[in-house]
Write a structure and sequence with these properties.
With 315 residues, the chain is an alpha/beta fold. It is built from twelve helices and ten strands. The protein is 37% helix and 18% strand. Strand 9 and strand 10 form a beta hairpin. Helix 1 crosses helix 2 and helix 9 packs across helix 10. The protein is globular and about 60 Å long.
Length: 315
């Protein structure tokens, strides 16, 4: 079966970036892996497309060594997620996994650092363990499991995918400004009608600062996003289709349509406040503007409601 058009664009981009990346190192030495970030909203197909991208890169004629990790596998263990929610009873955004603040940042930093050095001669025998998070445990709340994926060098490409990969914090003034604006396609009082408070966003904004060292590992970026005139409402449609498909295969187990809507609601503030940081950057913990390291080497793939590619660009 031929790969989707999006995979073709993603493959061409990664191969081009890999050539650029390798040209920066002596041909006598094994260069570090090319680090690729992939971001897309719930239901956009980012996980499927990333898996197809990997299949293409590891197959002939490319025959590359590729490691894929998901930001989802870096969630805190269930007991820590429960503790986090209990410590923040007024913040719906931290009531369960998903938002910045619900990941194990120290673990992620350690793994990314190990993968960055995986091709060095001194590390040729090192095994990197990549954790796994099972979302079906604890009634869908999820938990980290003992099984893990192991990796060893040499590696050509590291791909990390996730819904909030590449998000950047904002200044307090910009959060205030965006809070007062209607959410395109979702109404003028979206935040208030869903029970969110401005303080919730400021809390996530602060927690997001701790993720910025992760982003510094990445050489290039692929963003899969809805068309500009439907930045958020398509996400509900996609995620609902995803749930219906899963339930058709497992005998009807899963969320109701209302539960899916509430599930997506919790992610919309992330897109509204932090999503354009992928191409614009944001502030660091010192309040200074920080430019994403992949600027000039990013690929943007806009998709329609049917997930077909409508536009491709670079940033």
């Amino acid at each position: 079966m031929a790969p989707p058009a999006a995979v073709e664009h993603m493959t061409a981009h990664v191969l081009q970036q890999l050539t650029r990346h390798r040209s920066q190192f002596s041909p006598d030495n094994q260069p570090p892996p090319l680090f690729v970030a992939v971001q897309g909203p719930q239901g956009s197909g980012k996980t499927f497309l990333t898996s197809r991208l990997r299949e293409t890169l590891v197959s002939d004629p490319h025959s590359l060594s590729v490691i894929v990790l998901s930001i989802d596998d870096l969630y805190l263990p269930h007991d820590q997620l429960v503790t986090l929610a209990q410590a923040n009873p007024e913040n719906r955004l931290l009531n369960g996994r998903g938002q910045p603040g619900t990941h194990d940042v120290q673990l992620g930093t350690r793994i990314l650092s190990q993968l960055k050095r995986i091709n060095e001669a001194d590390n040729k025998d090192e095994i990197v363990e990549i954790p796994s998070f099972d979302k079906s445990l604890f009634g869908g709340e999820g938990d980290r499991v003992n099984e893990c994926v192991t990796a060893h060098g040499p590696v050509d490409v590291i791909i990390m995918e996730g819904w909030c990969v590449g998000f950047y914090p904002l200044t307090p003034e910009e959060i205030e400004r965006r809070w007062e604006l209607p959410v395109q396609g979702l109404g003028g009082d979206f935040f208030g009608s869903r029970g969110f408070q401005k303080a919730n966003v400021f809390d996530i904004n602060m927690k997001l600062c701790t993720y910025l060292p992760w982003w510094e590992f990445f050489d290039t970026f692929i963003q899969i996003k809805p068309v500009e005139n439907h930045p958020y409402d398509y996400i509900y449609t996609w995620r609902l289709q995803q749930e219906h498909h899963m339930k058709s295969l497992n005998g009807g187990k899963g969320m109701t349509d209302q539960q899916v809507e509430a599930f997506v609601d919790r992610y919309i503030p992330g897109y509204v406040f932090f999503g354009d940081g992928i191409s614009e950057g944001g502030i660091n913990e010192n309040g200074q503007h920080q430019r994403p390291p992949w600027i000039g080497n990013g690929l943007s793939i806009q998709i329609g409601e049917d997930r077909k590619v409508l536009n491709v660009g670079n940033f």
